[in-house]
Design a protein that fits this description.
The protein is largely without helices or strands. The protein has three helices and nine strands; from the N terminus they run H-E-E-H-E-E-E-H-E-E-E-E. The N and C termini lie far apart (60 Å).
C-alpha cells in the first residue's frame, strides 16, 4: 500500500480523510533544530554576521514569530496587526468601542497605554462583533507603564542592531534572533506594565 493510500485509508461519511498517525518512511530528512547562543539574561546574543545567508535565517525567525507570537512589521505577519506608528494601544485598535473592548472582557480600557495580543489596525472594511469572549489574562491585556503603548522600540528584549539589514531594520530582537523595525511588535513584548 502506498503512502498516499495509507493517508486516505479512512473515510468519514464517505469522504476520504487524512489518517491520524502516518508512518514516516525511513531515510527522510528531519528538520534542523537551531540553538543560537544565549547570554546570561536568557536572550539570544546578536551575531555580527550581516550576510545574505544570515538574512535568510532571520527571515525565517521573523516568520516563526509571526505564526507563534503574532509578530508584525510592514513585511511580515498579518497586515492588519501592524501599527505604522508603533504604539499598539487600545485607542488605535479596531476592537475598541469607546472605553469598551468588543473582544476582551475588560472594564474601562486604557486607550493610551493599554493593549493585548489581539491588537488590530482600525479599518472600516473589518467589521467586529460584540463577543467579550477573552479574559484579560487570556488576551495578554496590560497597561504599559510608559503611558504610550508597546512596540519593539519600547521592548527591553530589543537592542540596537550592529548594522541594519537590507530592508533597514535597525533593532535586534533577543527573543527571536532577528533584526526588526522599532515600529514592529509581538505578544512577547516586555515593556513594563502597571
Amino acid at each position: 500500500m502506498s503512502l498516499v493510500e495509507k493517508i486516505y485509508k479512512k473515510k468519514f461519511k464517505g469522504i476520504p480523510i487524512v489518517q491520524e498517525s502516518i508512518e514516516v518512511p525511513k531515510n527522510v530528512p528531519t528538520r534542523k533544530i537551531l540553538s543560537p547562543p544565549k547570554g546570561k539574561d536568557g536572550l539570544f546574543i546578536q551575531p555580527k554576521d550581516s550576510s545574505a545567508e544570515r538574512e535568510v535565517v532571520e527571515r525565517h525567525n521573523r516568520e516563526r514569530f509571526a505564526g507563534h507570537f503574532k509578530f508584525a512589521d510592514p513585511l511580515t505577519g498579518a497586515p492588519n496587526t501592524y501599527d505604522e506608528r508603533g504604539d499598539y494601544n487600545c485607542g488605535r485598535c479596531n476592537q475598541a468601542n469607546g472605553k469598551e473592548c468588543l473582544l476582551v472582557d475588560v472594564d474601562n480600557l486604557d486607550l493610551d497605554a493599554g493593549s493585548c495580543g489581539d491588537w488590530e489596525v482600525i479599518c472600516a472594511a473589518d467589521p467586529e462583533m460584540k463577543l467579550y469572549l477573552k479574559s484579560p489574562k487570556g488576551a495578554g491585556y496590560g497597561v504599559a507603564e510608559n503611558g504610550k503603548g508597546f512596540g519593539c522600540s519600547r521592548c527591553p528584549y530589543a537592542s540596537k542592531a550592529y548594522q541594519p539589514d537590507s530592508r533597514g531594520r535597525e533593532l535586534y530582537c533577543g527573543k527571536g534572533d532577528f533584526r526588526t523595525y522599532g515600529t514592529a511588535c509581538c505578544v512577547l513584548n516586555g515593556a513594563p506594565t502597571k
